[in-house]
Amino acid sequence: MIVTVLTNLTFSKTALKMSARSNGVSVFVRTRPSVNFAQDLIEYLPDQKTINIHMKKDTRNVVNNQQSDWAFKMDGVLHNVSQSHVYEMTAKNVVLRALDGYNGTVMCYGQTGAGKTYTMTGATENYKQRGIIPRALQQIFRETEERSEQAFTVWISFLEIYNETLFDLLSTLPDADSRDSQMAIVDDGNGVRVKGLSVHLTNNEEEALNLLFEGETNRIIASHALNKNSSRSHCILTVYIESRSRTLSNAKYVTSKLNLVDLAGSERLGKTGSEGQVLREAMYINKSLSFLEQAIIALADHRRDHIPFRQSKLTYALKDSLGGNCNTVLVANIYEEAAQIEETLSTLRFATRMKCVQTEPAVNEHIDPVLQVKKLEMEIRQLKNELAIHDSLANRSLVSYDAMSDTQIADINFQVHRYLEGTTDEIEIVNIRQIQEVFAQFKVVLHQQEQEIEAKIRQKYTLIDRSDSAAIAAAVKAGHPVDMVGEVDGQGFGIGVAPSAAKHSGSSIVSAKKAKMKKGKEMISPGRKDGLVSPGDGKEVEMGSLSKMYQLVSSTKDLESKEHDVHSIESHRSESACKDDHSRPNSPPPKSEAFEDFKSERGSEINRILKENKSILLEKRKKVKELMDIINYTKEEIDSTKQALLAKKQDRQLQGQYVNEEGETVIDEEEFDLIMKLKELKTSYRSNYDALRNTKAEDQYCQRLVEQCRSRLLTEFESWYNESYLIPEEVQNALRDRGSIRPGMMPLNRVLALEEDEQERFERLHQELLSSSPGSISFYNAHMRTQQRKHCFRARSQAQPQRKRAGVIVPQMKNKPPSILLSSS
Ligand SMILES: Nc1ncnc2c1ncn2[C@@H]1O[C@H](COP(=O)(O)OP(=O)(O)OP(=O)(O)O)[C@@H](O)[C@H]1O
């Protein structure tokens, strides 16, 4: 788990520079109050930012012969102020900015015993005197609760650098990686990290404090002449924060790293009077602090290209926390006594140099690729919905944006044929996909025509390969005229007129060729190639045939029974779904692909009915067109016959009419034929008109059937897709089995587990007692647990003293892990 966390936490160098404003490191001086305040030497100016040091020239402790007075201007001098004031002034903003995605570092520097640990950690037994780290942890979790629109994840690591060796102060916890791996600082281009350092997921303030106190307990404590309990190591508690938006499907998220650093004492060697191991410790500390100083000097000098971060573990570990894109704060802890004035001066000089270091705080923003894909998918869905609304408003409800079906392609092919024949003047444009298909079908038809022409030529002529001189010579010898008419299809054939015998006798070569051509023709026949082949028998569909008319009637009449079939498919769907033995892929396939699968499997029956109805609809449309052509033609005939009759009548009247004995007008034979023709034409017109009306009604009916079938196919597909790829299997099983877990119901064993036991009742009462200072509950709980662990540790280490090894805390030093982490593991 820890390895995953480490790899997920990438603090990218490519972070967007949200705030390109250049800042200096903020530097504060904090004094350790003393009854022996050296008021002659140290002066605090009322601006609460300046501290003056006056050294007497004749003093034995003179530091610099040339200079005796110094003025140090800082961002604040924290003299006789509370822990809470120190936090507000130094760390509060850095913590807030860390929650916004900016890296931050708060670091305490100063002489041993000057109050670094007091400032950074504070008194663990007193809530009011807690230091920067517990306050920062409290602020982080309070803020994360308040910023409800964001989801925060917080991890913590605790590193100690002792004698240039790295130690994981949290390696004693059960969820730390137990492998005895050597730790190393690595800079992999995504920022500096410590390989092998355990990083712990932390859900609340108390868990975070438990980690702090656990680490503190594990710190190396060496005896020392100046301060018996002072730490001889550098400690870096790092809080990693990741923040993602809850409300939006926002693929962007920010990360940050907050380093809270307690450095080892900065005093010089001679004064400590150390020897042995303590001397070695002091040497290491001096070395690393001197490298820190060198790095700071280099950082403050803009002309320097190279910053010597790798000289010591401390500077390397703090590489991206001193300058760069980080909000950095230094607290310089000083004594107020005259005896420590040299170290105080040295600390203040260091602080001044640090103040010259420039930083460019920047938000570490990242994009989650998985969320980004989801967001884009959602956008596509929304655009599709909008398109559907637009289409329905524009009366284009039949337009589909899915991949073209075989029937649709066949329909387009048919329209292209008609366009080329001249039977239609236009092809209705529906959407881009359809336009592309129209062009594709033009290509298909063109290719077919080329093939047909070649086939016709082959029927008439024997083709000889142009390069085959022997075949040409043989043909000439046989008396066949050879006519080199050029290339067909660029294949280098010579075309010769076939002798009549060859054309009709069916010589083996020619008949074989013809047979081959026939086969080829079948293969490239438009109907076959474009899906106009009837599914069962492989024969071409005869458009508009009577047999199809009967099929239409049966199809339309039987629609209800077909719908019944669809329903029965639906009722058996869940059963077949259980039987489907396909393992679900990690990510759902594209819908277009899945739709093809669906049509050939679960949706095959509906798809078949849809196809059938579509082909019937196509025939109806063709029939309507034919009838309209006939009617139009008949109408024209009627009009011209009427004209002819009128002319005849006028002619007759001009010439004078013949009347028989009964007084009836006598007409000639031509006029009689015209009258009879008109009568026939009118009869034909009426019957065709009736047929047209009926066919149109059938056409509309078929149209409705096709729409119903299509929408059912789509609905079925949607639920099949959801079941197969989207709804988790356990949810489906739970709902299908109707077992103990049902939506809205909590399982009985969980309900029972919620009952309070004795321990929990005790803890509740304990917390009620602390309710007068509610913010302190987490602090005291964590403190109480730390105390228990300390007792346990002391008892064990007294029984069996052990030496410390690099890389991990030796098992004998292992503390009882915080119960909260035990219970959560
Ligand atoms: N501002 C302060 N107010 C009250 N007590 C303080 C203050 N600063 C330091 N102390 C006390 O001084 C003692 C030494 O302080 P602390 O251990 O923090 O020094 P340190 O700089 O961390 O030393 P080391 O470098 O050895 O770790 C502690 O007992 C602490 O309580």
From TrEMBL:
Q: Where is the composition biased (Basic and acidic residues)?
A: 527-540, 558-584
A Pfam family that this protein carries is KIF9
Q: Which residues form a coiled coil?
A: none
Q: Which molecular function GO terms apply here?
A: ATP binding; microtubule binding; microtubule motor activity
Q: Where is this region: Disordered?
A: 506-540, 558-597
Q: Its principal location?
A: cytoplasm
Query: Does the keyword field hold Acetylation?
Result: no
| Record-level GO cellular component terms | microtubule
Name the residues that span the membrane.
Answer: none
Q: Which UniProt keywords apply?
A: ATP-binding, Cell projection, Cilium, Coiled coil, Cytoplasm, Cytoskeleton, Flagellum, Microtubule, Motor protein, Nucleotide-binding, Phosphoprotein
Residues engaged in binding ATP:
110-117
Give the GO terms filed under biological process for this record. microtubule-based movement
Q: Please give the superkingdom of this protein's source.
A: Eukaryota
Localization per record: Cytoplasm, Cytoskeleton, Flagellum axoneme
InterPro entries found in the cross-reference section: KIF6/9_C, Kinesin-like_fam, Kinesin_motor_CS, Kinesin_motor_dom, Kinesin_motor_dom_sf, P-loop_NTPase
Q: How does it assemble?
A: Interacts with HYDIN.
Q: What does this protein do?
A: Essential for normal male fertility and for progressive motility of spermatozoa.
Q: Which PANTHER family match?
A: CENTROMERE PROTEIN E (PTHR47968), KINESIN FAMILY MEMBER 5A (PTHR47968:SF62)
Tell me which family the UniProt entry assigns to this protein.
Belongs to the TRAFAC class myosin-kinesin ATPase superfamily. Kinesin family.
Its name, as the record gives it, is Kinesin-like protein
